[in-house]
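Bench notes, afternoon.
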Amino acid sequence: MIRDDIKAAQVAAMKAGDKARLGTIRLMLAKIKDRDIELRTGTAPADDDVLVTDVLQKMVKQRRESIAMFEQGGRQELADVEAAEVAVIEDFLPAQLSEADATAAIKAIVAELGAASLKDMGRVMAAVKERHGSELDMSKASGWVKAALS
């Protein structure tokens, strides 16, 4: 499980004295714990890896947005810190589908659902997220779905 890998990496980073990596891993564990607390009032997902992957993908997205803002503001040193955090977080994410594989999977889902126009985008996106949510960046998938439906 991804959660166990993160905890093992925390111990390894402590032993190695890698403070930057340790800080990022602690942030990841804190976000995961926050999500666990959030879900106590609702129903927990059947697969823990889905929850952890979702949290990590959101963290990566936030950091990429921060990198763009820091670079626009001329703060390259802060952008570099965020980029280092993205690299650590991505170590724990499942392998992402290539663009060719992703578009093929999306076209298969579109054909399976019988989607014909952009009006069906919601149904297609829901199916894509359900089947390939941990393997795809959903912001990119949105563009690919639009292209497949138009």
